[in-house]
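Possible regression after last week's pipeline update?

I re-ran a chain I had predicted before the update to compare outputs. Posting the input and the new output here so someone can diff against the archived version. Not blocking, just want to make sure nothing changed silently.
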Amino acid sequence: MNSPSERVLSHFPDESGAETRKLGILLSDVEPETVVWLWPGRIPLGKLTILDGDPGLGKSTVGIDIAARMTRGWEMPDGPPIIRAPAGVVILSAEDGLADTIRPRIDAAGGDPTRILALTVVPAGDGEPRPIEIPGDLQFLKEAIESVDAKLVIIDPLMAFLQADTDTHKDQSARAVLFKLAALAEEADVAVLLIRHLNKTVGGNPLYRGGGSIAFVAAARSALLVAKDPDNPDDRVLAPLKNNLAKDLGSLSFRLETAENGASRVSWIGASDLDAASLLSDTRDREGVSERDFAKEVVADFMSDGPKQFEDICASTKREGLRKSMTRKALHDLGCRARNDGFQGKWFWELPDSPDFGDPDDH
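New output (post-update):
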């Protein structure tokens, strides 16, 4: 498999037989390939994946959970992995200690520490160790990958390892770094998980909430988000932000628990109907109003001029950043009732002050 940098230039002979350089490559010379997944539908092999979220919500712990599964060949939280054989992992961590945090979390998750290499420093010109930098030290990263036969690289957080001259807010600068990192991922056939903190903006498109330029998430083939479940404060949600290679598989709920060794670990709960937009919506704390109360206001206003079909109500609340489950709760909180108009089986919801057309029904 050729790396992206190798595919940019191709060499063809001219009429005299001398080799000349020409740009591009004919698609007829490209062998079609099938996407291979480290975590099917969520983390592709040989590509960049971004994991965004606020500090303290479990992004790093989720990364450790995935790493532990890789070292054992275990199933992923929502199904079996494509790669079933145990594989190595390389971790670049700038915020968590190896002895007091990372190793205990690996143990708590049941991972094999003999297959995990922590790459924090590299030798400087004078032989003294220095922090690893990206992209300047990618050769050291490549060597680390080969040393443990890694299929996963975790860079946590990404911004801490970028060279000082990288302007993370300029697309051109960010893309130059990501191009080289993506080339390494493809050449080494590893999944690279880039962990980022969210910026301070509120609401808007979730793709713009990660730190730095939009080029980061644009270059990634998959992007994920970790956020709090607004209805269950102890729960977290892993939600898809984008995926260029597969359909949206939906979100997963999890909870952080304390293992016997005192370390944090992930306990997966199951599917969640929360998506990235609703998780990052600014309606949750608008002027001190809870999301549930805000949902009631939106639904009541939309239905004030008469009964509405459930699909139309959901379309209205979705524009306000509310998900379907919260819309259902609002309908019941308001005491709304559902009725069938008897024509083509259509169901309508109405407010309590409308004529009573039947018993409540969850349609």
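Follow-up from reviewer: compared with the archived run. Residues 1-10, 283-287, 357-363 have pLDDT under 50 and may be disordered. Marking as no regression found.
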